């Protein structure tokens, strides 16, 4: 797997209410490790090498993009991968498309009851996992830690070098991608996040903590919008599904059902409400996650 940042395609989405929209097609950067998952893994993999750890241990839900990415990285790079999956009831059911692919990529799957899963980062619980699996490099759920930020910062610097924009916008799950973009922008542009999960106000403090850990700084040139979650993290409302279908018809671009679709829906709504200055340019980022359509009966079209 090439560790160099690949060339980005930038698509024009036209003008909406006096605001120009661009889309950075980070979902096209790698056929199996697209978008922010590849970027968040890059420096963590280098650290695992430095520590001499060939096993990657991580966590996720049944349709986790992160689990899928770690499993693919393991196969591509010859690493052993272990995934602890939320929901012990899944052990007795046929594997869904995400977990089937992860297992085919060589990931060892362990199913946890939800109480244990909530305690997964407590030292005594994590120690028990490592006794079971042997020495491993532990990646947090979603892949977000201080080492995830430099890869996302590289994307921000790529975009600054490529084109002119006023606002850089991204969907947020754990906040790691937005935090990394902030460090890459280094105050040069505004940044905006749209939370994919309900009740995500806590992300503001998490993002500040991440940038502080990674660079010793916090930033003020950003905002987080928490009203475009569409009912919750893994919920796909009829309104959002219709938006995804219409967007694909207009632009020939498929959005994922959990992250970038909510981002673009929110961006266009904010433009209609006059949130952005007329004549400005908003650069949104397609972070991938298309494999999640397996949990929603398949992609439209």
TrEMBL record:
Cofactor: pyridoxal 5'-phosphate
Keyword presence, Secreted: no
GO molecular function, one term: D-cysteine desulfhydrase activity
Keyword list, A-Z: Pyridoxal phosphate
InterPro entries: ACCD_DCysDesulf (IPR027278), TrpB-like_PALP (IPR001926), TrpB-like_PALP_sf (IPR036052)
Domain (Tryptophan synthase beta chain-like PALP) ranges: 11-288
Catalytic residues (positions): 64
Modified residues (N6-(pyridoxal phosphate)lysine): 37
Superkingdom of source: Bacteria
Record carries keyword Cell inner membrane: no
Family membership noted in the UniProt record: Belongs to the ACC deaminase/D-cysteine desulfhydrase family.
Protein's recorded name: 1-aminocyclopropane-1-carboxylate deaminase/D-cysteine desulfhydrase
